[in-house]
Design brief:
Length: about 280
């Protein structure tokens, strides 16, 4: 397998890189994106990274002429709460998107483009709506949901972390392992099992931020959870509050996908993978 780095839209431009960037690909995972927070502060970046690059990728997959499977990592941010279209108690596979952020709008557009390319027979599209992933390894990024990893990852490393939302805020999340299982399922499921062109919601664990901190105390001790600084940020809180906290993932369940059982196990998994020799150390 050859790794190619650079701007996705430019890499897929045949005038810039030649026509064979994706030659021989049977399955394509589209995971690249500018994240929620930076899309709000830099609209043009979001359009370029999340919309133009997706258009370029789908066009390149069509040009292959081999009808490849294309797995698109969408997001629960396609849903949102507004006065004219309030969120239901739980979103399901029939809930209509109503994005309240630029990132969510760009992901919703990507879903529809993928569905139309699939309808036309150019490729076999599989859109999976990821929930917030915690605990993410590596360094913090500009995602509005990044604190859901930061308030666990950084204290476990002996560093202070800021929680920008109220303790009572409920969120829908999944471990990296559950997200990977969902993406692999999307790539390998039969057409009949996948069940249509619309996106599938990833199963999620619903939990409050206070309960996340309590789980950290149980697993690592109160001296670790004390490293969380509760400092509300109205902009981040507004974005997070617009996302659904409860997901009914009927199609995903029929595909054998399940949510994490509890947050304690997610923290323990992160610790195991962060140790030398664990999967997170590679």
């Amino acid at each position: 397998m050859t790794a190619i780095q650079g701007d996705l839209a430019q890499l897929l431009d045949p005038l810039a890189s030649g026509p064979d960037t994706l030659s021989g690909a049977d399955v394509v995972f589209h995971l690249a994106a500018a994240v929620s927070g930076e899309c709000e502060t830099d609209f043009d970046l979001g359009i370029r990274a999340n919309l133009r690059a997706t258009e370029a990728l789908l066009a390149s997959c069509r040009a292959l002429g081999t009808n490849p499977v294309v797995v698109f990592s969408s997001s629960l941010a396609v849903f949102g709460d507004s006065a004219d279209h309030p969120l239901p108690e739980a979103v399901d596979d029939q809930t209509l998107p109503n994005p309240q952020t630029s990132y969510g709008a760009q992901k919703a557009i990507g879903e529809q483009l993928l569905a139309d390319y699939t309808r036309k027979g150019f490729l076999r599209g599989r859109a999976l709506r990821l929930v917030s992933i915690s605990v993410r390894p590596g360094r913090p990024n500009a995602a509005a949901s990044g604190f859901m990893s930061g308030i666990i990852r950084e204290p476990l490393a002996g560093q202070r972390a800021i929680c920008p939302v109220d303790r009572a805020t409920e969120v829908a999340l999944a471990s990296p392992g559950k997200a990977m299982a969902g993406l692999l399922c999307a790539a390998t499921a039969s057409e009949q099992a996948w069940g249509g062109r619309s996106a599938v919601n990833l199963p999620a664990l619903t939990i409050s931020v206070a309960e996340m901190a309590e789980a950290l105390t149980r697993v690592a001790g109160s001296e670790v959870s004390a490293l969380i600084d509760w400092s509300p940020d109205p902009d981040v809180a507004r974005m997070v509050a617009s996302w659904p906290a409860r997901v009914r993932a009927g199609r995903a369940a029929r595909l054998g996908l399940t949510p994490d059982p509890d947050f304690d196990s997610i923290i323990r998994m992160h610790l195991a993978e962060s140790r030398p020799g664990g999967n997170g150390s590679r």
